[in-house]
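Hi C.,

You asked whether I'd gotten around to modeling the 136-residue construct. I have! Everything is below, sequence then structure, no commentary in between.
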Amino acid sequence: MEPSPGTVLIFDRDEDLLVFRTFGHATDWIEAMDVDEGEYTAAYSPDGAVLALTAPEGPEGSVVLARTGSVNLGDLERRVARYWRRHQAGQPPRAPLQTARFLIEGDNKPSRGWLGRVIALLRRGRSGDRSHSTAS
């Protein structure tokens, strides 16, 4: 399955990688409070286009994801390589587009602790069409 043109790769401050099929899935799943508190450090499309993730109405408002017009494929590739080293040990690293495809297809779930599993279950109830990776 090929990721859509609207696929989004978002990195948090723990260097976890979240992949969403569309901008809408990302903004439906991500909480404004987390954006407002700086939980997410970078957002990209698979081709390295830099995306801005904001909560203009504050922690209780909505989340906005927008294209900035900038491209930083080098930073995206470094972050994706770090993801592979940290969360997919033993797997060969893949390019950003291949990583997005890998995460969307769902054959990537590293084992998580009980808290990570509970959080994933709670978030899964909010939006059924997104993929993400977390580490315990």
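If it helps when you're writing up: The radius of gyration is 14 Å.

Thanks,
B.
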